[in-house]
Design brief:
Layout: H1 24-34
């Protein structure tokens, strides 16, 4: 249940500064492997045709 009258809580899940969670780095590492970036650009990405032959059309 969501309580609209709840008082402000300055809680930080993984913390920062002197209150940094010792497992924060591991948690971020695991999240990074579970949810990889949606768009990764390969190094050898190139157009299949010459750049001059690309025709721009309004959609």
């Amino acid at each position: 249940m969501f309580d609209f009258n709840r008082l402000q809580n300055p809680h930080l899940p993984l913390g920062q500064g002197p209150h940094l969670c010792v497992g924060a780095a591991l948690a971020r590492l695991k999240l990074g492997s579970a949810f990889p970036p949606p768009f990764v650009r390969p190094e050898d990405l190139a157009l299949a045709i010459a750049a001059e032959d690309v025709v721009y059309t309004l959609s």
